[in-house]
Amino acid sequence: MGKSTNITWHDQTVTKQQRRENNKHHSCVLWFTGLSGSGKSTVANAVAKRLFDDRINSYVLDGDNIRFGINKDLGFSEEDRKENIRRIGEVSKLFVDSGQVVLTAFISPFREDRDKVRELLNEDEFIEIYIKCSLEACEARDPKGLYEKARQGIIKDFTGISSPYEEPNNPEIVVDTEENSIEECVELIVNYLKDKNFYIAE
Ligand SMILES: Nc1ncnc2c1ncn2[C@@H]1O[C@H](COP(=O)(O)OS(=O)(=O)O)[C@@H](OP(=O)(O)O)[C@H]1O
Ligand SMILES: Nc1ncnc2c1ncn2[C@@H]1O[C@H](COP(=O)(O)OP(=O)(O)O)[C@@H](O)[C@H]1O
């Protein structure tokens, strides 16, 4: 229980199942995790475009964007990162309940926090996608110039440099953005969804 007392859960009249049947597809979280610059946003948005073209309702939640709004009170300490992921987990569950596919692009560096999100959902609703890319390659890409600032000590607690990243032990999907093109990464993910019949309401 949280801080609130005297609260009661209300079931909705329209169920998740009915929403899925209306949408004609399953709903789930595609949870992208990886270092800054590994390609989470790029691949998540490319998958979302493909899902859109295939008439699947989806929405991308992106670390940077979320920190402009709902999570603007959080920084990058371990405690704040944990709270960041906890909130996104809860928001993702609402998206799944609404019958949509939600793609989350957060570093989400701690295994325990990702596993807690997994536990919030049914087994077939949480798909962890490890966006694999070496620190060296991410640093060479440095699309926002953040690694350079982290190396100079201008940014503290930077993932991979001065803050840890824990690789997933058993992710549903691994895409290596040093080995595979963006299009190949999208194909791998969409083929996984098709193999698991996600394009069909169940
Ligand atoms: N200290 C530090 N460490 C890591 N990243 C930093 C930091 N400061 C700012 N940024 C920018 O914030 C983006 C990561 O936010 P996330 O919400 O995904 O991080 S976390 O999951 O809570 O660890 C991250 O976005 P991506 O590069 O898309 O991963 C950075 O642009
Ligand atoms: N195969 C690939 N998949 C994804 N991004 C790639 C790939 N190859 C090169 N890139 C580049 O790497 C950078 C990844 O940045 P971004 O998607 O913002 O990463 P993240 O969201 O993980 O911080 C982009 O500039 C992108 O064009």
From TrEMBL:
Enzyme type, top EC level: transferase
Write out the catalytic residues in the record. 108
Q: Name one Pfam family in it.
A: APS_kinase
Report which reactions are catalysed by this protein: adenosine 5'-phosphosulfate + ATP = 3'-phosphoadenylyl sulfate + ADP + H(+)
Q: Provide the alphabetized UniProt keywords.
A: ATP-binding, Kinase, Nucleotide-binding, Phosphoprotein, Transferase
For bias kind Polar residues, which ranges apply?
1-16
Give residues annotated as binding ATP.
34-41
Molecular function, one GO term = adenylylsulfate kinase activity
Q: In which pathway does it act?
A: Sulfur metabolism; hydrogen sulfide biosynthesis; sulfite from sulfate: step 2/3
Q: Where is the APS kinase domain?
A: 27-176
Give the residue ranges for region: Disordered.
1-21
Give the EC number.
Answer: 2.7.1.25
Q: Does the keyword Transferase apply?
A: yes
* One GO process term, biological-process aspect: sulfate assimilation
Keyword Nucleotide-binding attributed: yes
State the function annotated in the UniProt record: Catalyzes the synthesis of activated sulfate.
Query: Hey, which family's this protein in?
Result: Belongs to the APS kinase family.
What is the protein's given name? Adenylyl-sulfate kinase
Encoding gene per record: cysC
